[in-house]
Write the structure tokens for this entry.
Amino acid sequence: MTEPGDPIEGQILLLTAAKASVPPERLPDLVDRAQTLLAPRRDRYRREFERVYTDADREVFLVDWGHWDDLGEELELTERETAAVRRAHEEQVRRIGRRQDREGEFETAFEIREPVLIAR
């Protein structure tokens, strides 16, 4: 599964890196940087956004479309880097959806919102 503090499984990072326009060795660092930003905001996310899943490793929130663009700017990521981190979060939620028999629910949500995973 995931290492403590990592909301995204290694296999998901490999899959995402293969599809992304960033070097595969760079993606884990980008995801870690995002977690460093997100972790202290967990309580705010709990108040402001719908939490659709939680387990021992992570919490999943659905945020307004464009939220990752704002986070990417805050992290000073390029558009490609931001897209790669967003995709990693999406792919992890898709995997959770398949495991929980909620894939259709999450796919429908992705039409209007984006997922943000925050490690526990």
About this structure: The mean pLDDT is 93. The radius of gyration is 13 Å.
